[in-house]
Amino acid sequence: MTGLAGKIALVTGGSRGIGAAIATRLAQDGAAVAITYQAAAEQAKQVVAAVEAAGRQGLAIAADSADAASVTGAVARTVAELGRLDILVNNAGIFPYGPVEKVSLAELDHTLAVHVRGVFLATQAAVRHMGPGGRVINIGSCFAERVPYAGVSLYAMTKSALLGLTRGLARDLGPRGITATVVHPGSTDTDMNPADGDGADHERSFIALGRYAAAAEIAATVSHLAGEGGRYITGTAIAVDGGFAA
């Protein structure tokens, strides 16, 4: 156990990839876990089954992180059905890619809505229910620290915003005993960015360890921050990127 026995967690975007690994790991370490998903209902059911197989209560909530009411509603439903909320993991994300001059206003607004506004609103709603020992863990990106090639300006900008938010939250929430951190994953082997996909060898060339992360490796750090190991860590970013930003 990592001090998560009896804790209640909400992981946004928890039906796939890193989010699914985080939800499963938190359950294995003792927490009941709610996840949000947008379209992957069957995958969400599988994650809930994995949570329940660990002996914990699971809950899947259909929610669009770009929609304000959907975001805050997911927090409210978690509290209503699981009893309270101790850990919020803001993981939901998208990956816009392309030349900056071709980014449309709609794409800009949607990415900001998912990566920035949705995170802020989920956090704002969640911390109303958190007491001392509460955790806000934002999932950023290695591109917030280093951008070695073109096409990711919008993505990097929105993920970089999470560090400013996290630092502010540390000051706002510290007096209440609630911590806020951001985890910056590097290239991680998921269906969104498979280790054998197009361009994977190019990405590996920037990684000091020369390989993609497994989603479970990101989840291990999140669980550490959510548990007793994270009690005195706040207002900072932790890179789990294999040396991408070294």
TrEMBL record:
Gene3D superfamilies: NAD(P)-binding Rossmann-like Domain. SUPFAM superfamilies: NAD(P)-binding Rossmann-fold domains. Keywords: Oxidoreductase. GO terms for molecular function: oxidoreductase activity. InterPro entries: NAD(P)-bd_dom_sf, SDR_fam. The keyword Oxidoreductase applies. Belongs to the short-chain dehydrogenases/reductases (SDR) family. This is Oxidoreductase. It comes from Micromonospora endophytica.
